[in-house]
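[09:14] KT: can someone run the structure on this one? pasting the chain below
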Amino acid sequence: MTAALSGSASGKSRSFGKQVDIGDIGDDVSRAKSQALYYLKFRSRSSAEMDGYLRRKGFGRQIREEVLDWLQELKYIDDLQFARDWIQNRTRTNPMGGRRLLQELRQKGIPKEVVEEALEEFRGSVDERELALQVAAGRVGIYAKNDTETARRKLAAYLLRRGFSPDDVRNAVEQVLKEEREEHLN
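[09:31] RB: done, structure tokens below
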């Protein structure tokens, strides 16, 4: 079924010559769903990431909202689960502190309340002080050729960039540098 778009400022009907297939709207939703499922093939996504992807693909707000609702209903998109998975993956493959995780998840468009809930669970299951110590121990060898003060400064800067708290950084740096000195004395 098609309809001509028409209109005029004077109220008289005027044809713009463009035919719109009313069935295209349903086709657009199907196409958007297909694009969304393709985007999810590679990794899970946040609602904001999916919305941005569909926007870049040229879909309007109404279609994007319909597709996002459909994906959430099917549990293909769940921002809380996405945040949990992101934190777990980052902790396993590229350990970092809560501050950096918060920043990354906010960049992914996860609402602050959702991020806070996921980080609360993270902090309940992972000792960030111990994690900072592990990261520092793995990195201290890179700075071993430097004098102690330079090594301390560089290691602390690295851990702070990784999102660890200043207290955890201070503790980890002092402990690994102490162990490094004791190791060289033996």
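[09:33] KT: thanks! The radius of gyration is 26 Å.
[09:34] RB: yep, looked fine to me
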